[in-house]
Amino acid sequence: MDEIITTQPSPQHWFGMVYLLIFGAGIGFFLLSFIALGVLPGLRLAKTIASHTQTDMPDYTAAELRGRQVYASLGCALCHTQQVRFILPDVLRWGAPTEAWETRYDFPQLWGTRRIGPDLARETGVRSDDWQLTHLYHPQSIVPDSVMPSYNE
Ligand code: HEC
């Protein structure tokens, strides 16, 4: 009688393939986290910006662009932020929270991460030009214990 030869792989064979399963799962989880943590929040942000953006937001003027350059090159962002957060103490002190569209022309953005000095996003119109000039020239003549350096060269 002829013997029926089965070609079933042995359990050892399948066990040897486990690394493939782990490899596939690794790629799967990588893709999942890429989509969940990168792509989806990005789409949501783009949607929020589109629905809140002021359509008539003018381009920066030449003076404003120069101001951005000076602000970046003198390292003001090392001590100042330009983003009012959505938390009560921020709003009480500086006003309306910063919305995404406000900085949509800023690349690179200058939001800053440290607040050695106050937030400057809503600084416009808070002080007079004379105050600002004197303060930049020599901060300690206005705020005696200020740690802000003088910009008078
Ligand atoms: C070493 C940290 C530091 C750096 C760098 C710095 N500042 Fe300041 N700044 C401060 C501190 C602290 C205060 C709060 C005390 C004061 O008013 O001087 C302040 C206050 C200010 C204020 C007043 C805000 C208000 O209405 O009370 C303005 C405007 C300002 N800084 C602008 C700038 C600009 C522009 C630059 C870059 C040219 C700059 N700062 C760089 C620390 C810094």
From TrEMBL:
It comes from the Bacteria. Coiled coil: none annotated. GO terms for molecular function: electron transfer activity; heme binding; metal ion binding. Keywords: Heme, Iron, Membrane, Metal-binding, Transmembrane, Transmembrane helix. InterPro entries: Cyt_c-like_dom, Cyt_c-like_dom_sf, Cyt_c_oxidase_monohaem-su/FixO. The chain crosses the membrane at residues 17-40. Residues 62-153 form the Cytochrome c domain. This is Cytochrome c domain-containing protein. It comes from Sulfuriferula nivalis. The lineage of its organism: Bacteria, Pseudomonadati, Pseudomonadota, Betaproteobacteria, Nitrosomonadales.
